[in-house]
Amino acid sequence: MKEYKLYINGEWIEADQEEKIEVINPATGEIVGTVPNAKEAETKKAIDAAYKAFEEWSILPANKRARYLNKLFQLMLENQKDIAETLTKEQGKPLKEAIGEVRYAASYVEWYAEEAKRNYGETIPAFRKNTKILVLRQPVGVVAAITPWNFPAAMITRKIAPALAAGCTVVLKPAEQTPLTAMKIIELIEKAGFPKGVVNIVTGDPVIIGKTIMEDNRVRKIAFTGSTEVGKILMKQSADTIKRVSLELGGHAPFIVFDDADLDKAVKGVFASKLLNCGQICMASNRFYVHEDVVGAFVEKLKDKLKRCKIGNGLEEDVTIGPLIDKNSFEKVSRHVQDAVEKGATIEAGGEGFHQGNNEDAGYFYAPTILSNVGENMCVMYEETFGPVIPIITFKTEEEVIKASNNTNYGLAAYVFTESLSRGLRVSEKLEYGIVGLNDGSPSEVQAPFGGWKESGIGREGGHHGMDAFLETKYLSIGL
Q1: What are the Aldehyde dehydrogenase domain coordinates in residue numbering (predicted)?
Q2: Residue 127, Cβ density class (10 Å: 0-12 exposed, 13-18 middle, ≥19 buried)
Q3: Is 102 in a helix, a strand, or coil?
Q4: Pairing between strand 413-417 and 20-24?
Q5: Pairing of strands 346-349, 369-372
Q6: Which pLDDT does position 18 carry in this prediction?
Q7: How confident is the model at residue 138 (pLDDT cuts 50, 70, 90)?
Q8: Domains defined for the chain, CATH in brackets
Q9: pTM score of the predicted model
Q10: How high does pLDDT run on average in the chain?
Q11: Is 337 exposed, middle or buried (0-12, 13-18, 19+ CB in 10 A)?
Q12: How many CB atoms lie within 10 A of CB 315?
């Protein structure tokens, strides 16, 4: 077990009150590390450091900022197993998935090291003689990055890498359940030689830290991934200082299987979009609309594939399904399954979970569960489950399934399986979602814009689009 400190202005320091947060392994209930329980004073110190460092970092030539990011990228690859083991211990996902996440996280650092050098402006023809119009893009300022527990490595780099590439400085607030992965990345940032104050981390009470960040007008940008409920609070709080906000929020993704779909491909898509990280993914497929002519064959193929799943501690060999993050998550999944059964659903596979260990807050597992005969009145069809539950409802027509899929306030991701290119494109365009996986269960890529419509968020992360949120546009009119 390692006891971490805060990293502020290039130094590792204790919180003023020396209070600690214990980080628990969700598979075993064991304490795997501690971090300081920072509050207002420490958060202000981090903002002070970032604000002071911004003056020099923002004018550092882009190729030099890129060198720092490239060094961090190399260090993340060299230390990927160490980071991944920490990630599995505090978050629970199988080690193979954790290694994949660390590589994915590193790819954002590499990508934005390259994008740092491509922050192009414009020259626009003027309508007045002897006048030139220039458009410049300059860093927005201090950025607060607030990240979730389900992807504790990737959600950090997806935010701070473009911020740093743009010339912004950062105050990072990781989720209190999974701060150790963030600490590992910060250690590598220090090792890469980033100047003091460019990246700072505070761990602790999310309400106090969040309030301090939102009230400080020196913080010009908030990059947040988390629940829609918290995202709405941050939007309201941002109004007083007119902060920029990027919000990647909840989802309730439809997974549509047409009668001409390649069912093997669709089943593979279920595993990628639903069972990764035990279903604890914002873009996880939640509502499974399967054409009535193929539902029987689809369910049988899915049941057969589920037989090869192994549930357990993510550090154990061949485990494919890890634990749920805590007791509350387990109770929510159990409640959703029970509600569906009480309203007429049939359990085709799974349907139960278990608890192991002596810690009442951890050690909760739930078997991948298939539900058939599902109705729209069941909780699984209108609430985000965030667990390994696959509720299947049948449909007849294209129009019917599009209407049902769009009948939600969320709009992050959707999945469509059909061998008809015309149908696939037609349906994808009609779906009210920011991301559509057409015959693809894992459409998240570093070079593509990630984000949702409606109450699933504002802004895009990834690709060249991800730089926009961290840059201000300045119009310069020059009289000659």
Answers
A1: 12-475
A2: exposed
A3: helix
A4: unpaired
A5: antiparallel
A6: 85
A7: very high
A8: 2-249+456-479 (3.40.605.10), 253-445 (3.40.309.10)
A9: 0.96
A10: 97
A11: buried
A12: 17
